[in-house]
Amino acid sequence: MLTASYLVNHYQMQAHPEGGFYKQTYRSNEILRVEHLPERFNGERVISTAIYFLLEGNQFSAFHRIKSDELWHFYYGTSLNIYVIHEDGSLEITKLGNNPEAGEQFQAVVKTGCWFASKPVKEEGFSFVGCTVAPGFDFADFELAKADAFIKEYPRHKDLIMQLCR
Which domain range does residue 129 map to? Predict the structure, then answer.
C-alpha cells in the first residue's frame, strides 16, 4: 500500500509555499515569447509544466491564484476538495477523486485569475494529484492570498478564507 511518506520520498518531493509537497515532472523545452502572451504576463513562459502534488489529511493548499489555467488530475488516496472563488465572488467546490458516482471528478480546471485552495476530504488519508499549467507555471505568476485583504474583497466567504489562508 502506498503511503504519503513513500510518495514524498520516492518522487523527492519538496515543500510547496502554499502547503503540501510537490515535484515538477514536466517542463516544456519550448518557449512562448512575451509578445505572443496575454498582457498579464511580464516575460516569456514555457508552453506547459506539470507537477505531482501531495496533501496529507491535516494539510491544505492555501488560497492563491496564478496567471494561467490549471488542470488538476486525481491519482491516488482520498478525494480532494478544490475551493474556487471566481472573480464575481461565487464559490465553486469541486471534488477531485476516483468515484464518479459520488460526484467526484478525475480532472478539474481552475481558470486563470480565480482564487483557489484545496484540502483532502478525509483527515486520516492523503491526496496524491497532479497539476498541469499552460502557459507553464512560473513563481512570478503566483500570488498567495493575504487573509485580511481577501476577506475585505469577499466577506461572505470569511469562514472559509480563515480556514484556508496562512
Answer: 4-163
Specify the DSSP class assigned to residue 58. Answer: T
- State which H helix or E strand residue 160 sits in: helix 158-163
Residue 43, pLDDT score: 95
CATH number at residue 63: 2.60.120.10
SS3 assignment, position 56: strand
The predicted model scores a pTM of 0.95
* DSSP-derived secondary structure for 125-143: SEEEEEEEEESPP-GGG-E
Interatomic CA distance for residues 69 and 131, integer angstroms: 10
Please count the structural domains in the chain. Answer: 1
Residues of the chain with pLDDT under 70: none
What is the rounded CA–CA span in Å between residue 105 and residue 132?
A: 16
Q: How many helices (H) and strands (E) would you count in the chain?
A: 3, 13
